[in-house]
Write a structure and sequence with these properties.
48% helix; alpha+beta; 6 helices; single chain; 174 residues; 22% strand
Length: 174
C-alpha cells in the first residue's frame, strides 16, 4: 500500500510539472480557457493540478480505510454467517508464541467454547487427545486434558468480529 501511495504521488508530481509547462487536459478549442491558463504562473498551474488530484486521492484512501476497519473481511463474514465454525489465523499479532491460532465468531459461552475446542482437538487439523479428552475453563484460559494429563491450554484474544483461540501444546513441564 505504501508503494502504491509513493508511486501515485510521484506520478502526480511528474504530470503536474508537465502541466505547468504544457496545457495537458485542457481543451485547446476554447480560447478563453487557454488565455486563463497562460495568465497563471508556473506555480499556480502546478498547484492547481497537483493538490487537487492529491486531495482526491487522499479522500479515496480515507474512505477505503474506513471501509476496511468497519466491515468484516470475507473470512470473518464466513464466521458471522455460519458458513464456517472456525478458521485458521495467520500473523504474528494473532498467533504470538502459540503453536496454532484459530478464530471463531463472538458470542459463545465458555461451555460452548469448550465444546468447540474439544471438536477442534479431535479433527484432523490438530489431532491431539484421545477419547478421554476433556476441556474445561480455568479463569481466562481453557485447559485441555487427556485423562488426568494436561496436554495443552487455549487462551483467547478478542477481535472486532471474532475471538482468536491460541493453542499451546506439550505442557507436561507445567
Amino acid at each position: 500500500m505504501v508503494k502504491v501511495i509513493i508511486v501515485f504521488i510521484i506520478a502526480d508530481l511528474v504530470l503536474s510539472l508537465i502541466y505547468a509547462k504544457v496545457p495537458l487536459f485542457t481543451r485547446f478549442w476554447h480560447f478563453r480557457r487557454w488565455e486563463r491558463w497562460e495568465q497563471k504562473t508556473y506555480f499556480q498551474r502546478f498547484s492547481e493540478s497537483f493538490f487537487s488530484v492529491l486531495i482526491g486521492f487522499l479522500i479515496c484512501l480515507a474512505i477505503n480505510h474506513y471501509h476496511e476497519v468497519n466491515n468484516p473481511t470475507g473470512f470473518e463474514q464466513m464466521l458471522i454467517d455460519g458458513d464456517a465454525e472456525y478458521l485458521v489465523v495467520f500473523g504474528e499479532e494473532y498467533v504470538g508464541d502459540a503453536d496454532v491460532a484459530l478464530e471463531i465468531k463472538q458470542g459463545h459461552s465458555p461451555d460452548k467454547i469448550c465444546k468447540i475446542i474439544s471438536k477442534i482437538c479431535k479433527e484432523d487439523y490438530i489431532q491431539k487427545g484421545s477419547d478421554a479428552l476433556n476441556v474445561y475453563a480455568d479463569g481466562e484460559e481453557y485447559v485441555i486434558m487427556d485423562g488426568d494429563k494436561k496436554i495443552g491450554k487455549v487462551t483467547t484474544f478478542d477481535r472486532k468480529f471474532g475471538v482468536v483461540l491460541r493453542f499451546y501444546w506439550n505442557l507436561s513441564s507445567t
